[in-house]
Amino acid sequence: MLPVALSPALAPARSRLGKALSGLILSALLLSSGETWIAGTQISGAAEAATSTKTTTKTTTHKTTRHKSKTTAHKTTVHRSTHRRHRTHVRPAGYINARAAVLIDAQTGEVLYDKNAATPMPIASLTKLMTAMVYLESKPDLGKRVMVAREDLAGSGRTQLRAGEVLTMRDLLHAALLSSDNAATRAIVRNSGIPPEEYLARMNRKSEVLGLANTHFVEFTGLSEQNVSSATEYAQILKTASLHPMIAHITTLPDYTFRTSMRDHHLVNTNRLCRYGVFDVKAGKTGYISESGYCVATWVTTATRDVIAVVLGAPSNPARFAEARRLIDRLAVAPVTATRGI
């Protein structure tokens, strides 16, 4: 039998139908076998040739959305898992998160731990030890009664004092060193008999005499971030200040109560190490402004040695004491070589 010839009008239609059917079959095979690349990759050449542009666009868009959703879910899971691992990660013993820290043998000067200890940075109310030293070196009358002025309170932050209260210079000194009261510190300077410019000059001259090249003061309380020192140099300030019996006595009290012309006051030492009862504290001071972070310096006697710990720029109030205690517990119990911070 002779083959029947197709009319010219039917041939293209059948050809187009055959191509379309072939393309659909091939697309189904590729999709079922997972060979189509989507979401940021190229579709394989065979699939692209067998699929119309419109169909490819729809398929790619649909698959991309699903893929992105799965990818996002996967990334979120990994992130949360990593975050959980980070929270439960136990840091190595002796790890210090503060910006700077130093632990020094108070008798020999041996450096037991050093993290950025020579770097000058704001020291906040640690300033008040130098303010107190200059005041006591003027041989003052600590029993002298003075009145708190409004200028002492202006911009001083939290204080128990009120304008018009009358109290002794001794009580002001306790308020300045024990509870780090800025108004009390200003009242001390104002009633010291030393002009403010000369008082500040004496603070900076004392730093020079002690050989503290990175220590400088621009005011008396520590409210300025321009009052700077390094951990190593401040350890020297603390050691020198503790030679004054009055400073050593005040800074180691857990609390102090006194009465002014208006009412009773109860002060609590901002240095928690004096309230833990764990260490024999010989001197100490705390400080904080936003630029300095949380700072603490303390001299303690352990079973084996006297050490001075200075922590500058800790991330929180509890952290400064925890990190100081960690250094003392780990490194003050036996002779060790100098340890560099992480």
Assign the CATH architecture: 3-Layer(aba) Sandwich
Chain-averaged pLDDT? 80
Q: Which sheet architecture does the biggest sheet show?
A: 6 strands, mixed
Helix content: 40-55%
- Based on helices, strands and strand pairing, what is the structural class? alpha+beta
How would you characterize the overall build of this protein?
There is one protein chain. The protein has helices spanning 10-33, 45-50, 53-88, 127-136, 150-153, 169-178, 182-190, 196-209, 231-241, 245-250, 273-276, 317-331, and strands at residues 100-105, 111-115, 121-122, 145-147, 166-168, 228-229, 255-259, 264-268, 280-289, 293-301, 306-314, 339-340. It is α+β, with helices and mostly antiparallel strands and 342 residues long. Helix 4 (127-136) crosses helix 8 and helix 6 (169-178) packs antiparallel against helix 7.
Question: Short summary of the structure?
Answer:
This protein has 342 residues and is α+β, with helices and mostly antiparallel strands. It contains 12 helices and 12 strands. α4 packs across α8 and α6 (169-178) runs antiparallel to α7.
